[in-house]
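pls read this stuff:
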Amino acid sequence: MNRTILISAIGMLTLLLSQGYWLANLYLDKKAQYLDLIEESLTYSIDNELVLKSGLFGKPNNTNKPKLIIKSAEEMTSEEIKSHKGDTIVLQLDSLSHARKGISTFFAQSSIEMLLKNHSFPMAVLDSIFKNEIQKNIPYATCQLKLCSKNGQIIVPKCNIYKWNRHIITAIHPIGTKGEFYIQAFVSIPPRQIFYHLYYALTVSFLMTIIIIYCLYYQLIVIRNTRKKLQQQQQTMYTAVHDLKAPLNATYSILDFIALKETDNSRKSLLQTGKVQIRKLTDIIESILNIRKAKQNVDIKKTQVSLPELIEDAMREIALLFPGKKYQFELDNPVPIHYIYTDPVRLERCLRNLLDNALKYSDDDVKVKVSLDEHDNRFSIAIQDNGWGIPLKTQRKLGKQFYRVRIKGKDVPPGYGLGLCSVKQLVKEMGGSFTFQSTEGAGSVFVITLP
């Protein structure tokens, strides 16, 4: 139970971490989008607005000075291009990292270079222009620009208003033609505004987390209740198995007493067979209770066993359960295999179940053949019959607990569907494997392979 709780807790923690990682990536993606907007606004403010608004080439409404309008072809409309009467200059894009595309940018960078040389760069004008551009795209942001040298030293303004923290987004833009000066933008965006844009993602993530955690919790409760019921059923089963010992021992004593007084040899043989069967049942009960006592640790007690004798004894005992049944039995032992080292109680239970099914699921004159073989330090027992066979669609369910094969037109004897399930479990406990092949109407062959 503690392991189940631990695994569920690890699953919930993994879910929360994955959701947190996903949201963190969304948050970083949104900040990256804001950074793109800030860089676009800064570039526009410097290259397309600053030079003209600073008055370097004359103000537009001053008719005494010539008016210089600088535009690239990309910035002109088709009507402007058609009506254009001035000179047109075409420049290839500069490969320098600080250069921008277009003739207007070339003149803008040149004019900014003149301002920097004269120490009259209009920082306040640029700051005002940039703030207006930022307010268009990010109305809830606050910002400040700084003029920096190539080595990162701040020139204007001298005071540092913003202290670095994770809420500040910075962008750097080179100015001039020599790349010696930079404009650095500091933009503060409240985190709640970023999370506001992620509202639907946060809502979906929260609902998914709640639903999955509830499902895991529900599964944990179901597992706990199921385990509790199984423990109660096991306790009931083991109690019932234990209570079987008393009547079996009493029956054994009665048969033993009668056998002492019996003079007829045939009846005495039957009584002796009954005593052997009761003793075997008692041994089976003891093995079941020992597993319970050892807390599910399977105790395999291997001894030397005469395999042919064990098979023939099991067949004779099973035949007593079908007194009117006509059958043929054959033991094929070509190697031959005589003595093996295994758990006789478990192996006999397997043989009894398989031989019982061979007679139970067949008509009269059924032929039951048991073949023994040895290969690579492993021996196999194949029990073959020419009985009813198993329909193909039901073969994948064969061996499941409480599952019984229904064959059309055949009167299947009553049972609980535990025989083959028991065989699979017992063979597994002995370190072997269990396989079968069957064809409906032609019979089946079940193979036990053991070390």
Notes: The radius of gyration is 46 Å. The domain at 303-450 is CATH 3.30.565.10 (Heat Shock Protein 90). Residues 56-63, 89-101 have pLDDT under 50 and may be disordered. Residues 145 and 185 are 5 Å apart (CA to CA).
